[in-house]
Design a protein that fits this description.
The chain is an alpha/beta fold. It folds into 2 domains: 152 residues, Quinone Oxidoreductase, Chain A, domain 1, CATH 3.90.180; 151 residues, NAD(P)-binding Rossmann-like Domain (Rossmann fold, 3-Layer(aba) Sandwich), CATH 3.40.50.720. The chain has 9 helices and 15 strands. The strands form 3 sheets. Strands 3, 4, 5, 6, 7, 14 and 15 form a 7-stranded mixed β-sheet that branches. Strands 10-9-8-11-12-13 form a 6-stranded parallel β-sheet, sandwiched between helices. Strands 1-2 form a two-stranded antiparallel sheet. The protein starts with a strand and ends with a strand. Bound molecules: NADP nicotinamide-adenine-dinucleotide phosphate (NAP). The site of NADP nicotinamide-adenine-dinucleotide phosphate (NAP) has 30 residues, from helix 2 and helix 3. GO terms for molecular function: oxidoreductase activity, acting on the CH-CH group of donors, NAD or NADP as acceptor. InterPro entries: ADH-like_C, ADH_N_2, ER, GroES-like_sf, MDR_fam, NAD(P)-bd_dom_sf. Keywords: Oxidoreductase.
């Protein structure tokens, strides 16, 4: 049999496991031109929360009572498509099913000899590409500048900080535990870190760690941390609005300080970033990330949860910061 995970409810506020339903179906048979895929690693990502709302976005919302989908690395079990062979591994946007058929469109072959399969959903996948292209397209980092990144020990944030160091910047990370702060400094080479959960006054803490002000802010969390960064932003500063996880479970958008004055007086550029706008540049981005990985200039962390049934819980755990680096589920 073939387990599948459906979206059962559109969550209000924080999602829970009861918003998902498990069903069992017959294992599908591939038609002419199709492949049969077996899921190996499933990526769970904060942006999936947005797809659970019935609102227009840069990507279609999930439909109720239909399978959830995310980035998945799968093995080709049967192939009726001359572009793929049994035993190939592929990466693509696939459904939360143990087995599924595919036409092969949108799938990329991945090589497990070059990198561990899980890395194609992290540092060599959308995560790494987001970090790299966010900085390239909006950050415009210059040597000697101060880069601040939130969600610093997470999948995107940990890569952002390391790229900042490659570019010769002073890099300050913001994350949610002392253990994570230690990791971003010891493993990823950040210069300093701030635990936002134990810091009373983020503005003051940023001022202390960024005595020359902040030139570039890679924002993964939004909300009050963004407000504190804006109090310390430099003239011609750049803010990359990549994510706003602190707001994803809010039903109403909370109001905060107005940033127009700062943006105008300091000629700051604040720009929303959606990695999918740059699909044509994914190839060069992966190539650069692979080079840095092979040269030992970047490294990565993963939290790998085991078992297909754990996929919804692994997703929910992102909102409690239970992951270190990329959150993945290994499916047998
Ligand atoms: N724009 C794009 O194209 C694009 C693409 C990929 C990802 N993103 C965004 O980038 C961000 C990071 O994604 P990711 O996949 O790398 O996830 P991640 O950072 O690996 O995981 C999420 C992390 O967010 C932190 N967090 C959770 N709730 C928080 C809160 N209320 N305030 C502050 N931090 C909180 C947690 O770490 P702590 O322990 O530090 O709290 C958690 O580990 C997300 O906002 C995501 O939506 C955007």
């Amino acid at each position: 049999m073939n387990k599948t995970i459906l979206l059962k409810n559109r969550p209000k506020g924080r999602p829970s496991t009861s918003d998902f339903a498990f069903i069992e179906e017959e294992k599908p048979a591939p038609k002419e031109g199709e492949l049969l895929l077996k899921a190996k690693y499933v990526s769970v990502d904060p942006y999936l929360r947005g797809r659970m709302r019935d609102t227009k976005s840069y990507i279609e919302p999930f439909k109720l009572d239909e399978p959830v989908e995310s980035g998945i690395v799968a093995e080709v079990i049967e192939s009726n498509n001359s572009n793929f062979e049994k035993g190939d591994f592929v990466n693509g946007m696939l459904q939360w099913k143990q087995y599924q058929t595919s036409s092969g469109n949108g799938l990329n072959k991945v090589n497990k000899e070059t990198a561990p399969l899980s890395a194609y959903l992290g540092v060599l996948g959308l995560t790494g590409i987001t970090a790299y292209l966010g900085l390239e397209k909006i950050g415009n980092l210059k040597e000697g500048e101060t880069l601040v990144v939130s969600g610093a020990s997470g999948a995107v944030g940990s890569i952002v900080g390391q790229i900042g160091k490659i570019k010769g910047c002073n890099v300050i990370g913001i994350a949610g535990s002392d253990e994570k702060i230690k990791t971003i400094k010891d493993k990823f080479g950040f210069d300093e870190g701030i635990n936002y959960k134990t810091t009373q006054d983020m503005s003051k803490a940023l001022k202390k760690h960024c005595p020359d002000g902040i030139d570039v802010y890679f924002d993964n969390v939004g909300g009050e941390i963004l407000d504190a960064v804006m109090n310390n932003i430099n003239k011609y500063g750049r803010v990359i609005n990549c994510g706003a996880i602190s707001l994803y479970n809010e039903s109403e958008t909370p109001t905060g300080p107005r940033h127009e004055g700062t943006l105008i007086k300091k000629s700051v550029r604040m720009q929303g970033f959606t990695v999918r706008d740059f699909v044509k540049e994914f190839g060069p981005a992966i190539s650069q990330l692979s080079t840095w990985l092979n040269e030992g200039k970047i490294t990565f962390s993963e939290t790998i949860v085991e078992g297909f049934d754990q996929i919804p819980q692994a997703f929910l755990d992102l909102f409690d910061g239970k992951n270190k680096g990329k959150m993945l589920v290994k499916v047998y």
